[in-house]
Every structure is written in structure tokens, then in C-alpha cells.
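Re: the 434-residue chain
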Amino acid sequence: MNTFLFNRPRERAVLIGLCSPPEVTRTQIEEYLEELAFLADTAGADVFATVIQERKLPDHASYIGSGKVDELAGIVRDEAIDIVIVDDDLSPVQARNLEKAFECKVIDRTGLILQIFAIRAKSARAKMQVELAQLEYMLPRLSGQWTHLSKQKGGIGTKGPGETQIETDRRLVRNRIASLKRKLRAVSLQHDTQTRGRRSVPGVALVGYTNAGKSTLMNALCPEAEAFAENRLFATLDTKTRRLELKINKLVLLSDTVGFIRKLPHDLVESFKSTLDEVLQADFLLHVIDVSHPGFAEQMQVVRQTLKEIGVEHDNIIDVFNKIDALPDSGFLRELRVNYPDAVFVSAARGINLSALKDAIGDHLAQEFRERSIRTHVSNYKLIGYLYDHAEVIEKHYLDEEILLTFRVHKNSLKHIEALIKASQNTADATSDF
């Protein structure tokens, strides 16, 4: 199915944006429509024209007003436009009226993003998450011409007298939504079981606006990651996790996550919450920022707001300004360093300043390390070996048949070490009693 979507003939599209100064300026709308054009290109459409309509509020029936609709209808007809894409969410009434007037497909920003996610989804989990978001988006927009998702099931009593086609369709969709939610809960439970052992190792999640270069950065830091990276929006949907070794016995699990975007559909955020658990469980985040983008400051705000929406309340975040090689003005970079003194400035594509980023991760990680001392018998190979493999042994002193070790370890590993110490003490006590 996805191969078909990529290979199908490209459609001709017209983009529509609504400008309502002074709240939303024409310059802002032009930037938003540039992003919408990038989304359209990712989905497989060539943009023929962009239209900006200035209105204080959207028209409740046609979004842009009847006069503009009539003007655009002529362009759509004369230029054989296949699809009209609106930068805001349309109500079912607005979408239906525009489709009737233009006699072509009309979708809003949310519908376009969902289409891209459907194309990009590779794993069974991602496909289920996208389908769930699509169904929840479509449910209030169902019409009598809805194509059935599946054959009706059930027997006596499943369809009441006088039930209309639209009611049947809605019931089928709701049943499918409930089924997908059950399956996703089961998949999430299985994923938690599989990753439980990782939690002793500190986790770092890459977050950022879509196309900021997260996957490229992950490939640069962990060459074996082979994360999919290209100049397309939402190139990554499935979380990929790899080991990043900083120093001896100092490592982190680095996770690449789905990118964020302005007006990220709420249904999509809800559906992908299980994937975004990697972000919630991470010890700290690397916020990757495309510093070459003219609207990077607004993109930073979008990411921060989205993190807040999914439940990230801590401030353990390192800002990583990426693509510094694409900046034409070195003075601008100097200004950024002054304004963001704790940030790291890199080029993932060219490998610039990656050692400084690793040092910053190590310094941040050091705050989570704890220093402890233990005294145990020299024959306690299991405990001593574990400490040398998973901690930084600072000092050791031999006291007859015992050894005193002073070590530094991440707080996530302390619980396991304390369990090993307790087990060895119990063994020693039992041997003594015998």
C-alpha cells in the first residue's frame, strides 16, 4: 500500500491560508504556507499556487467567504487542480461546501499530516497508531458515501429497525477504534516488558521540530544506528534506540523520536503517546533545533509546548543548535552563543562539534551519578565484577581477605548494586551460621 502511495502520479495542489492581522500577519502566513507546501510535497503533491485570504474570522460555511470561493473555483477548473489544501482545520460543513464548489478533493492541515503519517508508517505499531488517529479524525466527518472498512459482523439484534447507513458506519468505526486501542495497549505492555532491563542505563531522547536533523545527529553519534534520514518531514515515526558510549562504563541509551510540528493534530498526539513514552521516561532530552531555519525560535516554542502537552514537566533539556554550517553569517552564530550560553552548536551532517556535544551529555549525566563505598570479601567475584563493568571504580584498598571499593555510578544502577550487596551479605551470614 505504501509503495503505491509513493509511486502514484503526483497531484496538482492549491494551498489556502487565512490572514487575520494584527494577531496573524501576512509574513507569518507566508511562512506557514511554505511549511504546508513542504508537507504537500512530502505527501506527493506539486503546489500550483498559494492563496492568502485576509479575514478577521473564518467564514463558518466556506472558511474563506463566498466571493473568494467563486474566484478559486474558476482557477481550480481551468488549471485542472486535483486537490485544495487548507492550512487550518476545517469543520465538516466547510469541507463539504468547498468540495462541492471546487469539484475536487479538499483536505485540511490535519488530514494532510495524517496522510503523511500513513505513508511513513512501517511497523505494525506505527500503522495501528496512524489508523487510530485517522479514524478518530474521520468519525465526525462521516457522510452517507462512506466506504466501509469491513463487513458487518453479528447476527440477531445487531441492527435495530430504522438504523440509517450513517449510523451503521459510525458504529463500525467506533468498534474498530475500540479494537485498535486494545491492541495498542497490549503492544505497549509487551514493549515495556522488553525494555524493562534498559532502565538501569540512563536514557536520552532526541526531540525537536520535524526535519531538524534528529536522525542525522543520531547516525553521527551512533554510526551503527542506521536511522532513516532524508530531507522530508516526518522521516522517523518509529522510535530507534542505540547505545552511546561516552567514557569507560559511562554510556547512555539514545532514542530518536517522531518530530513535532505546528498544529500537530491532537488525535495524533494521543495515538502516539505510547511511542512518546520514550520521551517521558528519558533522564534528559536533547532538543535538536534547525538554526538555519528563519522561524527556528517559533519552532522551539512549538516543541516546548508539545512536550508540555504530552506530560514532560522537568527542565532537563540540552538545546542543540544544528546545521550551523548552513549559516551565512558568523556574527549571528556569536550572538546565539551569547543568548544561549548553555546550548551546544553542531553540524550533524558534517560532524562539527560532536565531541563538545558528547562532553555536554557527559557533564549532564555526571549530575545523576552517586559515589558509594563497599567492603566485601575478595572472593565476591560477582559483585566486584559488576562494579568494574558498570561503575567507575575510583579507589580500592585490600584489608586482609577483604577489599574496600569506592565507586561512582548512575543512580539508576544503585538499586541493582544494593540488591547484589544484600544478597552477598545474606550468603556470607548463612555461611557463617553453618
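The first strand starts at residue 11 and ends at 19.
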